[in-house]
Input
Amino acid sequence: MKNKRKAYCVLIGLYCFIVMSVFGQDQKIADSLARIYNSNRLPDTVKLELLRNLSFNELRDLNLSLQYAEELINLSSRLGNNLYMYRGYLQKGNKKRLMGDLDEALDAYFKSLEAARKANYIKGEGGVYVAIGDVYGVSNNHQNAMLYYRKAIATLRQSNATKEDSLWLSTAITNAGDEFLNNKIFDSALIYFREAGQISENLKNETGKAYNLGNIGMVYANIGDKKLAEKNINVAISMLKELEDYYPICVYLISMADIYMGRGDQDAALDYAQRSLQLAKQYELKEQISAANLKLSELYEKKGNIAESFKYFKDHIAYRDSVNNIKTVQKMADLRTDFEVSQMQTKVDLANQASKNQRNMILSLGAILGLITLLLGTLFWYYKSISKEKKISESLLLNILPVETAKELKQNGKVHSIKFDQVTVLFTDFIEFSKLAEKVDPEQLVRSIDFYFTKFDEITTKHGLEKIKTVGDAYMCACGLPTPTKTHARNVMNAARDMIEVVNKERNATDGLSHFDVRVGVHTGPVVAGIVGIKKWQYDIWGDTVNIASRMESMSKPGRINMSETTYNEIKDEFPCEYRGEIEVKNRGVLKMYFLS
Output
């Protein structure tokens, strides 16, 4: 349950996205504009902007706000105005998102994205990427969420020229930080929040400051600094009350309940949770009604009041089930992981249909040589286009899966897991990365990690290793799979030496990047390899061998390659080594370790 509750924390990002205006939402503006709207004396072109502002600023009545958005979409369609079509679908998606209709929200966001592109509105395109990432985030689809957040940040950096551009960029970075926070990647979350906070500070954007304070407070709460967490979250709640932005207040009140529950002050924790529930009910925020009920159920259970706990838990289930389309959104991830790919597939389908029609015309008008020549030329062009797209698709697949695995996946639609008896696994980790992350500019840090991991990719390719994955600042690869080789241990040792050499060579470079020390761990043994799931495939390996290799890395020293006795026995005749002691490994007993000299 705790992990599920955490999922709600990431939702703050979406509502930071909704405030993508220099001035933010204001119910008073909506009330004033409603009087103008009800006079019904405006020309259509003026009415477009009026409807946009009404839908954006109406905070009390989500159904009324949705009604304004639908009217804006219909009017934009009738006038052929793609810019306001984008804005109408964006507001519809935002309101559906608040109401818990995730599949309808996602559908509206993709239509908004299409309209933004037709209008050549780059900022709008980047903003919708953020909203799509938010929906995938709440659906627990971390990979898709980060895919769209990175698209948003890259797109918005292109147009970061005005105050409003900077606000949009700050929003995208904040939401990406939320996604890292939700997945307990706290170092990365702080990096993103600090960059977003600096932008909000420069812009004097009170809404952005409030969100940033609350988000950083939740990071501190997760890493155990309750005092800083409470300080930041209380200031954020106070600022958001003045701004009448209630959804994040509900989230932060739950965080305060967690803090006081951790202190053993159950009465204060209950008070914060009850305040969150009352506020969520007042503004019909279904997800936060569900979250607050769950928190109250947990608190009453701790107090021993099982009857009250059960009552709140039933309410939690009822509201959770009313947000009834998370599974639908998960299925939509298969269809819309990448909007551009789906658009290209539509073009290919149209090309195939056109090709069929052209062939029918050739049969009917075979006597006209000129037309036959034209049609054949058209068919050849279509064939070349489809072949090109097929090559691009295959290249993308080979970039994430080994050749043999990709071939099996294309032929059978699935991949069988395979056990390999002799594989050598390598882990690397940068020394004191977390401490450096707190001091270094976030963009510089990301460029630095990318520089080293690119070098490591080149080294693994050179020595015939298979890159498995990266996790934060850790890099994992292996040799002996998917194609077994007798030289797996030797290949890994040569690659490890090259990695150490690259890191040592760059340590004192003055190139604007951050440089680190690195430690390396290696172990040899059996693994099971394959891919799991039906979407966002990733080739991975499992088994005791992986865990021991990771322990070898954690027990290594800066600039050294630490290996197990199993690996040592494989390479001792070819490489000089030195014995360095033993470690206790769970379920394995005592293991000997060796340094590569």
